[in-house]
Design a protein that fits this description.
Blueprint (H helix, E strand, L loop, with lengths): L7 H10 L11 E8 L3 E5 L7 E6 L3 E6 L2 E2 L5 E2 L12 E6 L3 H4 L1 E7 L5 E7 L13 E6 L8 E6 L5 E5 L24 E5 L27 E4 L6 E4 L6 E5 L5 E7 L14 E2 L2 E2 L14 E4 L7 E6 L12 E5 L4 E8 L2 E11 L3 E6 L5 E5 L3 E7 L1
Antiparallel strand pairs: 1-27, 2-3, 3-4, 4-5, 4-6, 7-8, 8-9, 9-10, 11-12, 12-13, 13-14, 15-16, 16-17, 17-20, 18-19, 21-22, 22-23, 23-24, 25-26, 26-27
Length: about 375
């Protein structure tokens, strides 16, 4: 995903060159196709469930893959309420840490008006159907332009829900005097952190240890800010470290890294900085954190697709490395990240055409999705 509409020439070139089926890598890793669906955007699995994978489709369905077989009925079909043109649509889902008991899960999408929407649902005992009437909007935010929606959901080890929302769209985020991303009074261009359960009359609760709870004029939900389009972010399942892949404007894509808990209150610099490049000299981004890795829009690259730090025991060659890719080239890469540093960035010899996302299951297997329909698992070669 990312800024796709603005990069149509790159996209068309990539689609003309790349084959739909990826090749095996030379580094002991290959891609195994596990499903073919419509415009997949994410892969997730509830804690403790080794039988079912859940796939989101941009038009609005959440599909169930049980023991490798795609079930004929979706877990939930939101297509009537989802606006899915261009970069809008259904972006991701996350299962409550106590899903086995509560049956609660959350989806992030744009509604028909284009508003960013976080909605809660309850699954039945099978985990394969949604309980009728259980849908509840937790949080909604108007989004003035159709692109830069982001839409990642992840529960952290603290059992809080983290939400990545884009900056409001448009070139260089021309919203307000300084843009949304540096405005702590806006939810846009941020990673948010909430307790999504209903609390009395409140649709959700703000954790008391969020960084801006007591700052006048700031939204208490904000956890990190200064982001353009954090289409995908993730937590290292072993360490709790946070990695954000923020889609750039015209020149640079970036990866931001924070050790566990250190993303709290972090300012990643947009719109003053695009990656390491200062683009607005008349403004300031207080305490801006530099990305640990950037790359330029060369060789057909256009928009970063963030992934996961690999902790799959079956892939020792990638252990502890962050796997990511680019939407236009589809090339998968791996890099080792740490505070302020990135090392050993290299191509895996694998490509996924129109690479929309990565996902991770409860056992640590990593998945990649293609906007052309393929859902793949990284396996030993």
């Amino acid at each position: 995903m990312g800024s796709l509409t603005a990069r149509a020439p790159f996209l068309l070139a990539a689609l003309a060159v790349l084959a739909a089926a990826p090749a095996a890598a030379a580094a002991g890793v290959q891609l195994t196709r596990i499903a073919s669906v419509t415009q997949p955007t994410y892969v997730a699995q509830p804690p403790g469930d080794s039988h079912r994978l859940y796939l989101t489709e941009q038009p609005g369905r959440v599909l169930v893959l049980r023991d490798g077989q795609l079930l004929p009925q979706p877990l939930v079909d939101l297509s009537r309420g989802v606006g899915s043109s261009g970069e809008r649509g259904l972006f991701s889902l996350a299962f409550a840490p106590d899903f086995a008991r509560s049956r609660l899960f959350y989806v992030d999408f744009t509604n028909r008006r284009g508003d960013l929407t976080l909605e809660e649902f309850r699954a039945d005992a099978t985990g394969e159907h949604v309980v009728a009437g259980s849908g509840r909007v937790v949080l909604s935010q108007p989004h003035p332009v159709s692109n830069h929606n982001a839409g990642q959901l992840e529960f952290g080890r603290d059992r809080r829900l983290y939400i990545g929302w884009g900056d409001g769209g448009g070139s260089y985020n021309r919203h307000g005097p300084h843009g949304n991303a540096q405005n702590l009074g806006s939810l846009l261009g941020k990673v948010l952190r909430i307790d999504p359960r209903r609390h009395g009359r409140r649709a959700y609760a703000v954790p008391a240890d969020n960084p801006f709870v007591h700052r006048r004029g700031a939204r208490a939900e904000v956890y990190s800010y200064g982001l353009r389009n954090p289409w995908r972010f993730s937590f290292d399942r072993d360490t709790g470290d946070m990695v954000i892949a923020d889609v750039g404007q015209n020149t640079l894509e970036e990866i931001d890294f924070a050790a566990a808990g250190r993303a709290r209150g972090a300012n990643y610099g947009w719109r003053v900085f695009e990656g390491t490049r200062r683009v607005v000299r008349s403004e300031h981004a207080p305490g801006a954190v530099r990305p640990v890795l950037t790359y330029r829009h060369t060789a057909g690259r256009c928009a970063i697709t963030g992934g996961y730090v690999v902790r799959d025991p079956a892939l020792p060659a990638l252990s502890g490395q962050y796997v990511y890719g680019d939407f236009c080239t589809g090339q998968l890469r791996a890099v080792r990240l740490g505070p302020g540093v990135a090392s050993g960035d290299h191509a895996l010899g694998l490509r996924v055409s129109s690479l929309t996302s990565f996902g991770e299951d409860d056992a640590g297997h990593v998945y990649a999705t293609s906007f052309q329909g393929g859902v793949f698992r990284l396996d030993p070669a």
